[in-house]
Amino acid sequence: MKIRNFVNKLEKFAPKKLAEPGDPVGLQIGNLDAEFTKILVTLDVRPEVVAEAIANHCELIIAHHPVMFHSAHNLDLANPQNQMYAQIIKHNITVYAAHSNLDAADNGMNDWLADKIGLLDTQRLLNGYIDENGHQYGMGRIGNLATKISVLNFAKEIKSIFKLQGLRLVSSNPEKLISRVAVLGGDGGKFYPQALSKGAEIFVTGDVYYHTGHDMLANGLNVVDPGHNIEKICIPKLTALFRTWDIVQTNHIEIVESKVNTNPFTFI
Fold this sequence. Notes:
Elements: H1 3-13, E1 26-29, E2 38-42, H2 47-55, E3 60-63, H3 80-90, E4 94-97, H4 100-104, H5 109-117, E5 120-124, E6 141-150, H6 151-161, E7 168-170, E8 177-187, H7 192-197, E9 202-206, H8 210-218, E10 222-225, H9 234-244, H10 246-250, E11 254-257
Parallel strand pairs: 2-3, 2-11, 3-4, 8-9, 9-10
Antiparallel strand pairs: 1-4, 5-6, 6-8, 7-10
């Protein structure tokens, strides 16, 4: 089967139109008209992940984070990033990224995170693309916990749920009981006003900046920052989704879950 046929199916689930402006989603490297039999699903594309794809004879990498956020200014192979590109091309691997379009998709990244946290009655956090049928998409979710819990204990639950070594908590009252939770995978700190406007008592998002943390405190919003890497939930979720597709089953496409830990941070 051609990679293009698989990508067309993926883009019906997470249309590129849902992506944030300037987000380099879609084909990163390779040839959509190449034939393939094996996919590696990953959060990030790093040299160790490319080596994993090569070892597993995968012709296609489906990633959440684009491999080419920034343009290459040269092809000096002493640069590890350029060397990784060279390995991808040398081994005829095609790399495709579904990033903010997967974040905004129905039953996509933020629904997976909300379900994992145990949110009920979830709604969109942000308003994004509206399709021709008037259906609105958007990143992030907001919903309610089944029972009230203290900010501190909720943070501990997040740490346990996502098997984290540690996380950051922004709160002036860790003993406060909360039940309304907003979640936005990745770097979502700048969207805290939208979380407040929808009644969030606590916001789960990654990569919160120092001064943004001050602003969150001043506005009375509790925040749990579990980091960016919790988005690796996409690996088992996308794998399970792909395996239900007829084109995958009838063409005997094998799906491999990346086992490489791409989290750059270690807590000591």
